[in-house]
Amino acid sequence: MRRLLTVLAAVLLWGGVAQATVVLQFTPGTKDVAVGSTFTMDLRADVPNADALVGWGGTLLYDPSLVRLDGVSFGLLWDSALYLGGDTLVTLLLPNPTSPDPGASGQDLQLAQLTFACLGVGTTRLGMAIDLLDPVQGFMRFDGNYADLEIVDAEINQVTVPEPGTFLLLLTGLAGCLGLRRLRS
Ranges for the Ice-binding protein C-terminal domain (predicted)? Predict the structure, then answer.
């Protein structure tokens, strides 16, 4: 019994040791955009050497009534051939015969640049979800296992910007009011 408790305690303590984690982030973290405009967000990752990636995939999360994904440009290390369009991003590491490393790792690693169109006024979170039942989603290491992942969402604020025509209409109305007042006096 004592041996069983010792083994159980060792397993629990070993499981509590911090594991290397891939940190996924959208930059900039907060962005203010005008309705009708387009804007870009970078998808970047901090990847420890122990978790060197050979592929990654996930589904973008955002409010489609406020923004629309118009384009994806993958970073220089990644192959865009697997991307079929839409909100699910999938890519593999491009082969590099001159590199001794079997995967991609490093700080602030460029995964993709996303181009969006702003459709309406409001605030939306930009994030990524990983479907564990989908074999092409996740952040795959060279050994075939998936890296632990921490996702840092971004916030997009859509604001209205008055059009020049609106200002012209306002000024015309004010001039008309002043003209009527002048005629009456």
Answer: 160-182
CA distance 150 to 157: 23
| The length of the chain, given as a count of residues | 185
**Can you give the pTM of this predicted structure?**
0.74
* Amino acid at residue number 57: G
Half-sphere exposure of 60 (CA within 13 A, CB side): 28
> How would you classify the pairing of strands 138-141 and 53-61?
antiparallel
- Domains of the chain plus CATH, in order, are 21-160 (2.60.40.680)
How far lies 68's CA from each of 63, 124, 154, 159, in Å?
8, 11, 15, 15
